[in-house]
Amino acid sequence: MIANFGFGVLFITFLVTLYSVFAAIYGDRRQIPALVESARRAMLMTWPLLTLTAGVLIYLLINNHFEVQFVYEVTSRSMPTYLKVTAWWGGQAGSLLFWSWLMSAFASLVTLRKWDRDREFLPWVIVVACVTMAFFIGMNVFFENPFAQLYQTFEGVKPYTFRPPDGILMTPDDGRGLNPLLRHPGMIIHPPMLYLGFVSFVIPYAFAIAALITGRTDDRWIRLTRRWALWAWLFLSFGLVLGGRWAYDVLGWGGYWGWDPVEIAAFMPWLTGTAFLHSVMIQEKRGMLKHWNMLLIILTYDLVIFGTFLTRSGVLSSVHAFAQSAIGPLFFTFIGFTLIASVALIIYRWSGLRSETEMTSMLSREALFLLNNLLFMSILVVCFWGVIFPLISELFSGQKVTVGPPFYERATSPLFGALMLLMGVAPLSAWGHSTVKTLGRTLWKPAVAAVAITVLLFFTYTQKIGALIGFFLVAFVILVTIYEYWRGAYARQRSQGENIFTAFWNLTGRNRRRYGGYIIHISMMLMAIGILGIEIFQVETQGTLAQGESLEIAGYTVQYKEIASWSDAPAGVNYTRSVIDIYRDGKFLGELNPRIDYYFDSQQTMTIPGNRSTMRDDLYILLVDWEPVSSTGATFKIYVNPLVNWLWLGSLLFLAGVVIAAWPEKEAERVPVTVRARVPQQEQTPSAAD
Amino acid sequence: MKVVYIPKLLVAAFLALSLAFLASPAPAQGPTPTDDEVNRIAKQLYCPVCESTPLDVCPTEACRQWRDLIRTMLADGKSEEEIKQYFVTQYGVRVLDEPPNRVLTYLVPGVAILLGGLLLLRGFQMWMKPSGTGTAAVENQPAQDPYVARLEEELKKQK
Amino acid sequence: MTETSIPAPRRGVPIWAQIIIWVFLVGLLVIVALGLRRAQQGTVQPGQVIDNFTLPLFSGYELDGKSEVHLTDLRGKVVVINFWASWCKPCEQEAAEMQQAWLEYEPTGQVVFLGADYVDTEPEARVYLKKFGITYPNGPDLATRISQYFRIKGVPETYFIDQDGVLKYVQVGPFSSIDQIRAQIDPLLK
Lengths: 690, 159, 190
Description:
Radius of gyration of chain C: 26 Å
Distance between the termini of chain C: 99 Å
Low-confidence stretches of chain C: 1-8
Distance between the termini of chain A: 75 Å
Largest sheet of chain C: 5 strands, mixed
Structural class of chain A: alpha+beta
Oligomer: heterotrimer
């Protein structure tokens, strides 16, 4: 009954979004403001309606209504309540609803602002937002109904939206339970974070389309959505980092990124989103690249839709699964339709997007930003090709192939390296004009210092050429960025008379986007340190140890002490927990407890590593679950991951950096300026060196 | 010095046994390959049945058998290439972590990136054509962020 | 001050560029659509003529002394090809029935049973065959060529091909009784 009510509300919401779309279009074409306003009100209604729908679903989840198929699939009696709530996005149907709910929240937020200057955008923003919402809600209503119930007919037990003739409602005793991999805190916030990122990118896209349709092809749409894009990018970045952390903690292969098509699908919109963030700055400062920015946001939007489906939270799927589900063709059609429509719009408005200024130097900041975009798009091409190649290979040669990490790593490493180089050079180049001389003058000091650091590393840490290049670039970028930061603070200190700390603080506060950006760059370099460490210097081993036996790896001595196994019936888990003592240079460092959790309801195993983390490295031990554990011994997989915690540290700094960059700025401050006496009319040749 | 008396029969038996032991062919195999040696190869292969799972971390029974197969082949003295080739013959090319046709795999993105670079170069040419004198440089200054422009000025004065 | 540079003439996207863009875009969508369709296809369906394939056989499991089987050589006989694996638990449920059916039909000389071992290791496969006393010709589906052709979705699956090489019936999953097997073969022998 309640489930049917939930479905009813969902269906009404679907109709409301459709109404909103048509009312907005009709109201705009026929110049009927009242109709557009009606469309706006209808769109505002979607959020309360979807909240009600979600509320019903959560109620069903918490109260063990196993006759509802979705509840049966993702919950079980032994799960704690908070996990039952998060099971909302633990399966396909629920996560689609979650997506729609977020979309309605953001769309409502956007429409609640004042629209006086941009009245003409409103109908089209509503149209784009509601078409997207209608699509996702429609998927729920017609194909993946979260409220479908299990009925027994002579064909067996199947889910139905409405009771079939001579069908009997069937309530299983217990549910299948959430995939144990999803019962980890990282996995609880990772999908919502990713979805927040995905969904918020729809808003800049909506404004871009509105700008194209109305012909308002100036900066306005960018300025309006600049903050949205930044927050979207923050959520998406953080979602990706959380995904990596979750994989590291729980998936049991000691890695944080496997170049799986699912991961890549979420990574691709991040690439175009980052390129977009940089290139809109060019449009704002120099009025260039209007076409390109439009293209980028369109690409981001379609990659977001593509990524959403592939990363169905709750189940690790891949391109394979995308193709086999019933929804695959529908997503494909939607992506195809939006892509074609958007490209057609850009072509139609092409001449209206003409640039206003020209470029003067290939080393100017805008040129370097363009190079940045080229590199990001190149990485995107590599990723997209890697994902689609197996498909093409099978189509044309009938042979199934796998594109794994070696391809991606080999192809993207030089591109990432080039990006890092750019990160070091670009902050020192000026908008409009830079020459080799001016850049060289400012660059040589950090470059030399970076070389010195690299040489030091060569003698003390490693001779591997790839690592050295990586560390050189990291040092270079950090030095350049700190140098820039310091220059600004120093200048401020001298002109304002503030002490250096206040100068730093105020500098950041007054120009948040720039200095927040610098912090972000530094944080990315810290993450790069972690990545270089684990990718190049990781040491691993696997061995079977008898009780009391020990093994040496990378300077650590690891001794297997004992193992215990017991069941926790109410929680539905069987634990096998080992005790391992760690020594280094004879000194006892502590104990680690890798264990295996076996979940009865879903019949799945989780291997939880024992991990000792320091900034120097991680000692990461897994109790292997495919070898039997007996009195003769247990098998362990041990990884030593140097520097990996810089990755997580860097991501925290990254968070701070984006928050700073996105924090609303006050109007330009009034700063007392010492005015030098102007030299009266004299021949002044502008020095070309500047 | 004490004389140890050893029965002749015992000596004979001992000699016979030693001879028999020395004469019998030693097992052709070397020591059992360690898990690490197996994993070094298994890392480069994907489980033929599971989805996107490398062979060294796959937990299924079948994967365990495949790893044992690698172990046996290594003990028989097969090289890494031979083992990988065997897997390809048995299970198809998708068991490798890279497509065998390297040219095509790297060529297409390579060409695309090159084209992108050329497009960018063309764009640079187009945008830089009308100017050509240095005057354009100066008039672009006002487009700068006024705060940063002040900063740059201050810095120049400091020097 | 000085006038800004002469604005470039306003023009739309040239026709040749538009053509390239659309060809590329549509081409991409078509490729993805084809891939999607292919993946959505189920197994090969009854009514289709089955192309020739070659199944190498394990030693000791030859057919008429030959160590490999070509489907075209078996024209004129009913061919039952069964995909299985030693690590496949459901396969064990039908193993005994399959062997029993083989013992019934082999003497007629009109039916050939073929076992295609899917993604397996020979030692384990032999253990499985021995355990269930299977004697009909068996061999590995090298590089999964045959199973890819039939587009099997899992194991066990059994395909019944008539005397003219036309697929007549697809059994997905294990047989629950020998009657099911007889029910598919007997009509073909009329």
